[in-house]
Amino acid sequence: MPEQLRVPGNRPTLEAVAALAGVSRATVSRVVNGGDGVRAHLVDKVREAVRELGYVPNHAARTLVTRRTGAVAVIIPEPEARIFSDPFFSRQIRGISRELTAQDTQLVLLLVEDRGDYDRIERYLAGGHVDGALAFSLHTDDPLPEITRRVAMPTVYGGRPGWTTGPDDPCAAYVDADNRGGAREAVRHLLALGRRRVAHVAGPLDQTSAVDRLDGYRDVLVGGDPALVAGGDFTAAGGARAMRELLERRPDLDAVFAANDLMATGALAVLREKGLDVPGDVAVVGFDDTERVAEATEPPLTTVRQDVEGMGRLMARLLLGTLGALGTSPAPRAVITPTALVRRASA
Q: For the whole prediction, is pTM greater than 0.85?
């Protein structure tokens, strides 16, 4: 490294990079800060000088110039115990993290254990610490959409919004799976197997994914018996409770569609406890295709696959596109991803 370009004990400067690359300081600044209008061969020279000198941008100065922090908040309004026990969350966070990392953007995880945490989150978002927010697993009474509007925070949601929003609302963008269509496919599959008393273990109906899956079930079983529907909470314990309730009401049921894989595992445990064979006596279908859940059940679980990790990546790309960080055309306001039935031994 040329010694005259570096003062011992000091970090390399933009001026040092410019001198080594043979360009102006302004050109180095544009390249380092992701600006446009620099010819490709000059970009290569600047990047080579940055590598040779070990130049690290001053984050505070860069923020002043670009008005960007290079960070995105990921907000999950669920208890910590559920977030770290349900593989759905880890898959979505993994997808988000991979996309943000690829775009040199930092992920800041904000958890909501109780309602009191929203004041802290609002202060953090309003403080200019992040450029935007990604949020998923919201409930219909969640104050987060109003908070993001109040602090003018660009936000992308995982899941169809369950609140009223206008077409130009900067906080209205979302990525979701075709929950209703996937549920219809699950129920049609059970009917094609000759099952006629198909029950549904529903998710919490203050979340749009659960509502859409229940609606898909009802689309196929128009005028179905309400005794064949029981509410759960997207946990294995909730699925077990709902399965016991269903068997008490309709011991002759011959199939179950659970609104997620964890509730399906709870249902399978109760059916086994009652001495019922799966799929001989009762066929079972889940939703999510969480591999380490669906493939580990006994028997392996037939389920509706949604690409949870891919949805996380899409959420991040949608937000970065909204922020202009990808240099692409304006991002769409909503993306609905397809689902597919994965057949295994349970149905």
A: no
Q: CA 152 to CA 172: how far, in whole Å?
A: 12
Q: Say which residue the tokens 């009802």 belong to.
A: 218
Residues in contact with 9: Cβ distance below 8 Å, sequence separation at least 6, in sequence order: none
Q: Is the peptide bond before 330 cis (omega within 30 degrees of 0)?
A: no
Angle in degrees, CA 159, 162, 168, rounded to 5: 85
- Between CA 14 and CA 78 the distance in angstroms is 44
| Residue that wins the pLDDT comparison between 162 and 346 | 346
Question: 64: phi > 0 → left, psi -120 to 50 → alpha, else beta; which?
Answer: alpha
Portion of the chain with pLDDT greater than 70, in percent:
87
Pairing verdict, β 302-306 and 334-337: unpaired
All residues at 6 or more sequence positions from 208 whose CB lies less than 8 Å from its CB, including other chains: 140, 159, 160, 161, 162, 176, 179
User: Which residue, 145, 121, 119, 323, is CA-closest to 315?
Assistant: 323
Quote the mean pLDDT of the chain.
Answer: 87
d(CA 285, CA 332): 33
